[in-house]
């Protein structure tokens, strides 16, 4: 796995690079600005770009804008965005623009090495990885949506874990239930969110993006 890291904090940037190299991953480039990140991505053609949300010169949304631009240039590029805080508008701006190969994690998650590496691998393989705290706050902002109110507390738990990018077996393990129970809950979620099966729409993705988009409208 070839990786570019864009982070203006030199300690975190070098720490990430050391961690990933120790795991046998290939860090092909680093940058401390969004512009530098795009240059590194264009030059090295990585499989994954890890970008901080806030970078020079304004320390607002440079990383998100760089991530969106990087995906525009290279649609197959996997992108994992890191943030010090939960920023719902940035999360939904990024994640509602695509259905795979995208992640949004809080920086504190990096210290939980196995969780961070698992999220990175999910994103690199075309999945999604959304920080549980981001998911929790998005659900809070979306609580007035009528269709989401149809869900039982357990179904909301399942949908939240789906949003984090977990598969059925991983959800079952987290909730201490069987794979069959998870499958049943997911079928109920699809029905309550009025998501009929079609050849054009992945209902699992649609269920997650439904409440992400709702949260973005309310932010």
UniProtKB/TrEMBL annotation:
Keyword Nucleotidyltransferase: no
InterPro entries associated with the record: CheY-like_superfamily, NreC/VraR/RcsB-like_REC, Sig_transdc_resp-reg_C-effctor, Sig_transdc_resp-reg_receiver, Tscrpt_reg_LuxR_C, WalR-like
Keyword Transcription: yes
Alphabetically ordered keywords of this record: DNA-binding, Phosphoprotein, Transcription, Transcription regulation
Domain Response regulatory: 2-122
Residue positions, PTM 4-aspartylphosphate: 52
HTH luxR-type domain segment(s): 144-215
Domain of life assignment: Bacteria
Any one GO molecular-function label of the UniProt entry: DNA binding
PROSITE patterns cross-referenced by the UniProt entry: HTH_LUXR_2 (PS50043), RESPONSE_REGULATORY (PS50110)
One BP annotation, GO: regulation of DNA-templated transcription
Name this protein carries in UniProt: Two-component system response-regulator
């Amino acid at each position: 796995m070839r990786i570019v890291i864009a982070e203006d904090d030199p300690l975190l940037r070098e720490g990430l690079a050391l961690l990933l190299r120790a795991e046998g991953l290939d860090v092909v480039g680093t940058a401390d600005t969004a512009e530098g990140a795009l240059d590194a991505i264009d030059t090295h053609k990585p499989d994954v770009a890890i970008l901080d949300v806030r970078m020079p010169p304004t320390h607002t949304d440079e990383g998100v804008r760089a991530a969106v631009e990087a995906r525009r240039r290279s649609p197959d590029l996997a992108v994992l965005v890191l943030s010090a805080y939960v920023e719902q508008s940035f999360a939904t701006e990024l994640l509602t623009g695509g259905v795979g190969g995208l992640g949004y994690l809080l920086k504190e998650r990096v210290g939980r090495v196995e969780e961070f590496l698992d999220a990175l691998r999910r994103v690199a393989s075309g999945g999604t990885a959304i920080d549980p705290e981001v998911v929790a706050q998005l659900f809070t902002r979306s609580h007035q949506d009528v269709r989401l109110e149809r869900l039982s507390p357990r179904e909301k738990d399942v949908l939240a874990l789906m949003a984090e990018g977990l598969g059925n077996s991983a959800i079952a393990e987290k909730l201490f239930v069987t794979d069959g129970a998870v499958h049943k809950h997911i079928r109920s979620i699809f029905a309550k969110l009025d998501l009929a099966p079609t050849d054009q729409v992945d209902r699992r993705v649609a269920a997650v993006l439904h409440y992400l988009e709702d949260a973005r409208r309310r932010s």
